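fyi for ur records
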Amino acid sequence: MRTFRFTIALLVSAACCFAADPSRTPKPEGLPKSQTPSGVELIHDVEIGKGGDRVLHAEIARPEKPSAKPMPAVLWIHGGGWSGGSHRGNGALWLATQGYFTASIEYRLSGEAKWPAQIEDCKLGVRWLRANAAKYNVDPNRIGCWGSSAGGHLVACLGTMDDARFEGCGGYEGVSSRVQAVVDYCGPADMTEGSAGIQGAKDDNDSKALLGLFGKPFKKKPETWRDGSPIVYVKPGNPPFLIVHGDADRTVPFVQSERLEIALRKAGVPVHLLRVKGGGHNMMAAKDAPPAEPDPQAIRTAVTAFFDKHLKQ
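which gave:
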């Protein structure tokens, strides 16, 4: 049990890194078998379609014992400032111990392709799973998504961006990419005014991560930055959201999640913003500061309860 908890802590911590360190990218073999939770089966590097001219993959974690009924599913979208990180670290893996099918989706990083390639690849991941629902014993009408930091931004996009122009052409065209529940950990949501307050932004200088994502400075291409802001697409009928954000986050300001919550609430979308008091970008308190509240176990309980409510019931 201690090994399992330690492994999850490492996965979540790595996923929350906004400016990724390539040297710490998970190794190709994925999670070591010795650290895999009991009763969970891992399937590495499953091909899901194409991003541009290359194949994209998913890392699956599911219950070893087949379920009598189709399972609910949660797709994990990794963080890393859109420029780093890997699908070979499934931050939702522990949900497989709770009867969920989970898959961590690979998407093209900003050094390879600019926006909207990233949301196209994430939508491909949803279409792949829905199209293969029978194969994996998944309920195609109960698919949620969860991501942290840059991954939080992308799952918020999955929950709000229904425009056909974001679908891409990587495979399974015509299959719905709609998700039924969204858990957004500290994701940027509103870049309509540039990247003020987001790590790396100072005076007239854009955040390096966002500049890498959009390819052009905000002043030269504001419409592109607006195009990548999930808050712009909020409307009635969006799926329920759980937003988790530390109010001491110096990487992505807490106000980003406050704005998204307000927009969702105004549209009549079920939403709860879980404020982690004293929490930084990794939801933990700074050194020598009082512990952040709620603690990691309570946050995980809230995530489980949210998915259970919207995907299991």
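The chain has one domain: 41-312. thats all i got for now
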